[in-house]
Every structure is written in structure tokens, then in C-alpha cells.
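Need C-alpha cells for this chain, all 1105 residues.
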Amino acid sequence: MSVTDTRSSYNYVVTANRPTNVRHSVVGNFTGATDVNLILSKETRLEIWTLTEDGLKGVADVPIYGRIAVLELFRPPGQQQDVIFLSTERYNFCVLEWDSAKEEFRTRAGGNVEDRVGRPAEEGQMGVVDPHCHLIGLHLYHGLLKVIPMSPSGELDEAFNIRLEELEVLDLKFLHVPVGEAPLLAVLYQDLKQARHVRTYRVSFKDKELRAGPWSQQDLDAGATKVIPIPLPLGGAVVLGENVIAYFAEHQGRPICMPIAPTIISAYGKVDDNGSRWLLGDNMGRLSLLALVAVDGCVASLRHEALGNTSPAATLSYLDNGVVYVGSARGDSQLVRLSATPVGGSGGATPSFLEVLENYTSLGPIVDFAVVDLERQGQGQVVTCSGVNLSGSLRIVRNGIGTTEQASIELPGIKGAWSLKASSSDAFDKFLVLTFVGETRVLAITDDDELDEAELPGFDADAQTLHCSNVAPDQILQVTRGTVRLVSAATQQLSHQWTPPAGSSINLAAANPTQVLLALERGVLILLGIQDGAFTEAARLTLNSEISCLDISPLGEDTSVAQLATVATWAMDLLVYRLPSLQQIAKEDLGGEVIPRSVLMADFEEAGPHLLCALGDGQLHNFRLDAATGELSDRKRVSLGTKPIALRSFRSGGARHVFAACDRPAVIYAANKKLLFSNVNDDEINVMTSFNSSGFPDSLAVAKEETLSIGTIDEVQKLHIQTVPLGEQPRRIAHQDASRTYAVAVESVDPNDPEIKNCAVRLFDDQTFETKDRFELEPNEQGTAMVSGSLVDDPAAYYLVGTAFALPEEQEPSRGRILVLQVREEKLVLVVAKEVRGATWSINIFQGKVLASIGSRVQIFKWAAREGSPELVVECGYGGFVTALFVEHLGESILVGDIMRSLQLLTYKAEEGALVARARDYNTNWVTAMSVLDEETFLASENSYNLFTVARNSDAAADEERNHLATVGRYHLGEFVNRIQRGSLVMKMPDSEQVEIPTQLFATISGVIGVVAQLPKDKFEKLIKLQDALRNIIGGVGGFSHSEYRSFRNESNAGEDATGFIDGDLIEQFLDLQPNDAAAAAAQMGPDFTPESVSKLVEEVARLH
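Here are the C-alpha cells for all 1105 residues:
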């Protein structure tokens, strides 16, 4: 066997939760001349939002093939709309404009500005656009300014470099100058003595050099970090420091300075177009207002006022009417409204002048997480340590949509369920109609808000109901096989009925407030109108085949009458009819032999009207439906389960959704103008109906084989995220099944003095997340590692906590501890405290012993009893690492991740009580996280945002080969991974291939939760073909190359193509392709592939997350 011939070499990488940390935000008129757009960058994604009367509405959310380093908005002369300048950390850039007709990005220009030589700027890439659009300036390398000239029409010319005298640039900005003057650049820098200064330069295009500008200032505040260019007529610049804010301008003569309380200002945003007021946000989440007070056209003084607390701001964007977007990379982003008068405070002490309108959930940065299967169903619940400082929180992440049961009744054999109002004008539902074979029963909400059995005298209780609903005017409709009945809502007595012709019966029924559509035997279709409390036959039609399902749901604003009807037949035809004539206007051949079982027309608002057709084998066809013409387009098919699906629409959170009841129930909803499918975390559901009653508001009633349950449903989204605010930063987390608790190492910071830190271990109930106890650590001691389990010859469950003493005078901790804690009566009790020499970076339980990486060594401790008291005794160790950050094990193998020297494999010799080196990776990889895939193959991430796998060839003849961990996979993820561990976010059904596919979960600084799945070789090879085809069909935004983006590159590797990994995010875009593009992709894969077979393949891997 070759070293690469292993499933662990065939990895499928896909994002379960997209990046949530906001790095840049800008406001302008991008999608239209009058549109107010908020444009966000989130590491590798670009989002466009539009400000509406109802708040922010999403317009576009697209991947960028690169980590976004610079995002600027500018308007070329003479144009009505803004354009975006974007550059990536790999030096690709583009200028994007919005194509309103196609509602997509269009690339105006693009290229690469990487130099062959040059030391990358340590402060990161910076980019600025001259206010008069003469040029774009980029600071990419020490001592150089890259200039991209712009023509008067906004076209980009060839870039060139200009020498910068300042080597350590902290910030640079183009200042506002009168039209006709050369561009003026302000450079904030630090010299070799750590002093900070600001200097201005004129940019000379002719000589391609910088010339001395009109002003400069030496010896600024020691914490000066940012330059704010002030628009004309005031002009000049504000420099933000930790202790002083200063204003400089050529015409001022002297700077205007104002001392402030010590802080680190992390973001600013302009309020007024003239630049007289600015919002400032610091790293502790304090928002303030800076005002430039002008007298006779000159700034006379500065005024600084506190506004209140928000999430720590990375960006601030003033939208309109006092509404501000706070983009955060350390917590949730927020939409806040400023107020001229106080709206609240902290305990009444400090007034707040802002109101939080909306929170945008962000998981980042995730520093650790635990995967726990609390329900024992093979589906992991991920609990993350998220946020920074006061924004710290635990986030409980579950795949799919959860339900909360409020009532349950044993009622086997339910065949259908409908909710009814006592009167059409009522706000709440009162009745719940349940039908069985041969009978119908009615439940009603009593005055005590309880559910009890009731009667509707006008109903036929001795027949199975096919349909019932409230209809106009204030009546109740019941359809059985033998009759269609109208019951007065006021008297509950029968007021009118219609019966089918003699010798025939009704098979199916659908209705809206004014129309009833009936399917009789032998393919007869009848449309009844409801008018003046009676039925009138509007149309009749006989089809060539039996009807299997039908729908008459209204589309558009008028919900009382439908213009279209849809019918599916046993001949596998899907038909659309014009009403009231029943004229056929569209027909689709569904193909196959499995009969359609449910059909539904639904207007998903954001995604528009769709026609859904569910089959008896769990397959679902969906089409875009033109509500005016009835035309069907954009046909897609997905597999939701293996049994028949029943479709029912409902509303949640003000939006239209569709519930698919089957063996794997799901909710179909719209986001970003396309349909999405999210599993419901429940067992097989046969019947569902909404039931918004006074006793059970906003609830659903669902019927299973034996029970009827009533409950609420979580917010409709693919991942459900619950937040547990901590008010301090969580560092490490572990779960203990025996005590049903989580232990979390936390660190709190004094807002007034960030140098003062308090660290502890908090104990939480694993169901309610109520804090049970808090175990304080010693001064300067931080929790660095944590695990739960039992030790040899001791059945008790313990939490093992590794710590480090972070002393100000030490570069690296010289001492730490291993704490053995036990939960007793919901309290954390210290059993053993073991002093160690160095920081305990990682800790595991290995064969009933303690395995830990401490400083530059890996050590194993025995659990021993001496004089009746337990203690940890060193058994053996292995050194020689720079810093052993990570240690994992599987069987006898122990994997060590070094901060610089990549991975090394050790073996524990139990007989000798020793650790022995087996193999190592000789590449220089700065490891940030790692996991053991199997005893021979290992997965890791490194600090250049890459993933890689290495494997040991234990069957090799030569010792040199056996001692070498060879690289078998490499891939640029574009995310900084903090943690990788085995687990799954989805329930793996016993009859599914997913059970055979191992998965690893990873979490990143930007809030990404991702999945790495080890695929069989044959499936991997098929998906590689699809990936190659999609690279040709799906163009990258800005013209960026997907293959170049995914190539592995770091300080010691100039770049190698990705291997051993497949980009699942790209693969799953196949499901969104237009039919002609899907056919083209399948054709490029080879003659053995069809769009249907490829779609099935992609759906299978998509279920992995």
C-alpha cells in the first residue's frame, strides 16, 4: 500500500457556518443611484445590504477567492453610482460594479500587484483611494507605496512603486485637497525608537515619487494608530491616540489637541458629510462622538462625548437618521440608533444615548469548542467559546430546526390535521380537526386555554375528512369522500352541501377562501366557487389519468382567490391550469415510476413563487413559477427522505415557509433569493398543521404514528444558534456526562485597566446553562487546557485543567499547574494540584493516565495514591520541541503539534514506561490545530490559513521512509483554524452511507464552523471531476482564480496546487445552477454522468453538514 492510498487522503471540506466576523464596512450608492447600501467584508465573503423602511435587506452574499485585505468604495467622475475596490492578501485586486439587470457583480478591472521581492508589511496591507479618484495607493511591502493611476473616466492604468522612507507604517490616508492640487498623502509611522510621527507627501505622477507635503508632526501620542482625513472646507486630519486626539491642518498653524481617558480606538465612522462629527469605537465596546468645533472656517476645539456601550467595533458605518452599523470581529455586530437624550444606562449610573435595534449573531472568534451528543442520536451539539472580553459568550450550535414540545396526546392513526378559527375575523385558532380512517374528531381550546374534545354539529364526524378550512363568508368547509359541506361559523350548523354525481366519490380536495378544487375517480377535476353561502360549479375537466395530488393556494396579494391550480397525476405529469376556466397552461413530465403524493404552490417572497412536487420516495421537485403566466422554469430535485412527503405551508417570523412531513422532516425557506432546506430535529412526522391558538401561540401540531404533539419551532435557519452571555472571555471548555455539566475556563478584564485579569473555571448545567459554581484560579494564572474523564482504577469523573502563570516579566511562562477537579453536589472541588515547569498547553486522558504537553515537553503522569491521598506522578516524558502546543492520541500513537516544527508522532511503550519517537514531518509548519484521522494519517492547520494531511507509511522497507510523515494533502482554507476535533453536526441515519464517512469539525477565528469528511476514493474522484468542471462554469468574483486561491502557500512554500482536498462550498453550488449549466458541468465530467446523477451525488455529500 502506498502512503497516499488511504481514505484519510480523500477529504471533502465544506463550511457549515460562514464567517461572521466583520472586517470592513462602507456605505454608499452601489446598487442604484438612490439606494443606500451597506457593504461588508467577512474574511472571504462580500455582502451587500440595502437600507429600507423595514431595516437592512440582503441583496448579495458571495464568496471571494481570497482573504479580503482592502475594501474601498469610490465614485469615478461623472458617474451616478459607486464602485468597489477590493484586494486580497495574495495581492489580487479588482474593481466591481453592480449589474442591475442581472442583479450580480460585474468586474470593471482586475489584476495582481505582487512584487517578486519585498518584505510584506507587518501591520497588514493598507489601501486608500484619492478623493478625486486620481489614484489608488496600496502599502503592501516595507518601504514601498504601490500606486495604481486612474484615468478621468475611472479606468485603471499600469501600477508602479514609489519609495517610502518610513519602514513601519501604522496608517496612511489621502487627505482632501482642492481640485487641481496633487494628491496629498498622510503617513502615520513609528521609528526605530518606538516614537510615532505623522508626515504628509505630495504624489508626483510625472517623477513617480513622493515630495514633502505642507505639514508634519513629530512625537505624537505613544499609542497613535489611526488617521482620519477631514473633508473640505475644514480639511486636514485627526490622529487618534490612546491618550490624546489631535487635529492637524496646514492652515491651522498649530495642532488642536484633546486628552482622553486611556483607551484603544479600534474604529471610526463619519456622521456628517462635512466631517464635523465622527463616531469612535474602542476595543472594550465603548462608543463615543468626536466633534470638531469650527470658528470662522477653522477648527477651534475638539469635543468628545460618551454615547454608550456596543459590541467591540471593528467598523462603524453611519447609515441614516441616527442609525449606525457596528461591525464587530470580537462579538455580535449590531444596528443601533443614536438619541439626543439618554435612553438608559448601566445600573442607572452612566447614561446611554443609543438603542440597539438588531443584533447580528457572530460566533467569532471561536477559541475552543465541545461536541456533545446529549440526545444519543448521533448528532452533535457544538458549544463554542466565542467573543472577546465583555462580549464573551458560549454559543450552542445545532444543525437544523429544533422544536419545543408544549403538549402531547396519545392518538394513533391520525391521517390529517387542520386548524380552524371560530370566526374568520378571530386572531387565534380555536379548533384542531383530526381525521382518522372512518371518523373525524375535533379538539378545541377552552376558556382556561386547555385543549379538550369538542363537537361541530355541522360536521360529518363519521367520515374521514379530506380537507377542512375557514372560507368566505365566515363559514367552515369540510370535504369528505361523499360530500362537500359548508358550516356556519356562527351557528356551527350545516348551511349548504354539494355531493358528487351518483356512482362516484371524491378522492382529493384543496381549497382557498372562495374556491374548492376536487379530484373525483377516473381523473375528473371539478372547480367549485363559494358565493353567497353556497357552492357553484365553475368548471369541470376529465384527465387521461387518475389524479394523485392537487393544490389551489393563492399567489400574490389577494389571498382569497387563486388564478392558478396545479395537479399531479399517476401518469407522472405535473399540470398547471388557469382559473376559473381550467385551461391547461403548463405541463412537466416528472419521469420515473414513483407517484407524486403532494403538490403545493407557495410564494416565498424573497425567492418568489415556486411550485413544489413531492414524490412517494422522499424526492422533491421544485420549479420557479411565473404567477402571471403559469410558466415553470429552473427545475431542481432534492432528496429529503425515503418515504412519502406531505407539504404544508405556514408562516414563521413574518415569512412564508413550507413544512415537509416525512421520515426526515424538513422546512423549506428562502434566503438570498433561493430556496434552502433545513432538517427538523425530530423523528418521523406524518402530518403537520399550524396551530396559532391563545393557549399555544405560534405553534405547530404534528402527528406521528402514535402521538399528537403541539409545540413551537425555532427560528427557521440551517444552523440554530443559542447565546449564553458570560460578560467575560471563555478560553477552554469540556463536557462531563456523569455530572451533566460543562466546565469553562474564563478570563475577565477590568474595563478601566485591561492589564488586570481574573481567571476562573465556571461550572454550567448542560441543559439550562445555569452557572452552578465558580472556581477561582491564582493571580496571573490562566486556564490553557481542559479535559474530562476517569483515571485508572478510579471510577470517579474528573475535570483536568491545565494552567499557565503569565507573569509580565516573562516572555514564556516558566510554571503552570495541572488541577484535578471533581463535581460534588454541583460544586467544583479541588482534588489534586500538580505544579509543572512551564505552561500546560494541552491535556488528555490516555489509557487512564494524564497526557500533557508542558512547555517544550510531552509528559505522562500516573494517578497514584500515597498515604491515602491521590496525586499525579510523572511516569515519562519526551522533549526537544520548540513549544509543544497540541497533543492527541489514538491507540498507542501520540501526535504532537509544535508551534514551528509541524507534527511529530510518538509511541508509548507501556512495558518500559517510555515515550519513543516514531516519525515526524520535516516541513516548517506553524501548527494552529490538529486531529488524528487514523493511526497512520493526521490532519492539521497552520498559520498561513492552510490545511494539510500527513501520513506514515508503516509498511515501507526503509527506516527513513517509516520515520517520515509524508504530506498527502494540502489545501488553502482561507481561515485561521483554532480547533479541530472528531464530530458531526448532522444525524447520521442507520441506512445512510454517511455512517461510513468519518467527519472532523473545525472552528476558526472568523466564526466559521466547518466539516472535513474522509470520502471513499471512488466518490472523491467523481467530485474532483465535478470541481474541475465547475471551475470552468462558475467564475470567481473579480475574475479571481479558484485553483490559485486553494493552492497551498506559506513562508517556506512558494505555492503548490491543492491535493487530497475538495472544496465542498464550490461543489454544492452545482445545486443552484441553471439547467443548461448543470448539463454542461455533467458533460465535462464524462459520458457516464448526467445532471440527475451528479445532483444525487452532491446531495449525498451535502448531507454531511
